[in-house]
Amino acid sequence: MSATNGGRSSANGVGLTPEAAYWDGRYRSDGKLWGDGPSELARLAVARLSFAAGRGIDVLDVGCGYGRDSFFMAAELECRVLGIDPSPAAVAAARRGRRGDLDVEFETLDPGALAAGASPDGGQVGGASPDALVPDAGFDVVYASNVYHLLPSASRESFRVAAAGLTRPGGLLFLSTLSPRDPQHYAKGEPVPGEERSWIEHCYLHFCTEKELRDEFAAFELLDLEERSYEELHADGRLHHHASWFLEARRSG
Asked: Which domains are delineated in the chain?
């Protein structure tokens, strides 16, 4: 299944963007794509948030997939985690893997829809009102691992608006996204017309520069922005080499 930029498609009767439909298909066919261990960003976030362990902070995991980072943060930090993902297959897998001793919930939702109080197809999802999922003061942490580069331009803007609105004043944002120096995916596939550093291979990918991230997340006080190279072992045994930006920022206000 390939993705295109813009529009919606139908996957198993659910209205999804092409990007979400692609990943829903991958989760249905390939299961736990990246194994059970936490991502690089999750390890970083847990290390930076060690001071808050046991304090019952609220974390929003955007693009949670099948829940590997949600479970890791909930266990290590003894925090409450809400994982959201537009893929019904991913959310179903996350719910199946949930342990009773962890304070973790999962909903089929994207961040723009959560902020707007509506699901991607205009209705409620998961049996809960999206507004009811947000703590009164907002989330202490908004977390997004390897999600931002999957979002077309308009969706990236919606994400930024939602992230700023959902993070409580003084709360933290953790985000990782592919760099133009990524050796695995950069400049692979067909370029997206009118968009710099964006291609469609199997799915849409955008590669951010440092300046771009600094400008786009100006609503936050930037605490750290670092480009890292790392290896990612997929569940099928393939080793991928990546270069990504790791961003940590505090919500002003």
From this structure: 17-251 (3.40.50.150)
pTM: 0.88
Task: Write out pLDDT tens, residues 169-185.
Answer: 999 999 999 999 999 99
Q: CA angle 11-20-186, nearest 5°?
A: 135
C-alpha–C-alpha distance, residues 132 and 101, integer Å: 22
Q: What is the pairing mode between strands 204-206 and 198-200? A: antiparallel
Write the DSSP string, the chain.
----SSS-EEETTEEE-HHHHHHHHHHHHHSSTT-SSPPHHHHHHHHHTGGGTTS--EEEEET-TTSHHHHHHHHHH--EEEEEES-HHHHHHHHHT--TTS-EEEEE--HHHHHHTS-TTSS-BTTB-GGGGS-TT-EEEEEEES-GGGS-HHHHHHHHHHHHHHEEEEEEEEEEEE-TT-TTTTT-SEEPTT-TTEEESSSEEE---HHHHHHHTTTEEEEEEEEEEEEEE-TTS-EEEEEEEEEEEEE--
Query: d(Cα 146, Cα 157) in Å, to the nearest integer?
Result: 16
Q: What is the pLDDT of residues 123-173, one digit of tens each?
A: 333 444 556 778 888 999 999 999 999 998 988 998 999 999 999 999 999
